[in-house]
Specification:
Layout lengths: L2 E8 L5 H11 L4 E7 L4 E7 L5 H10 L4 E5 L3
Antiparallel strand pairs: 1-3, 1-4, 2-3
Length: 75
Amino acid sequence: MTAVEIVYKYNVPPTETTMRAMVNVREVYGIRRLKFNESENTIRVEYDATRLSESQVSTLLRRTGLDLGDKLQLA
């Protein structure tokens, strides 16, 4: 397993429907953790890079209805 973390900004706070859809993302094999930071409008995703690519992760997030913005550089 190769654990990778990525952080994305989101443009609009997630709706209740989007948050319900996030439950399904958490169940995807390879997604390890999702963490929202409401004060910074970011979502941090930890995933297994041997199972998923960064592109697949962003697609999963967008399919929930989350208005995904830029990927942030981790320090």
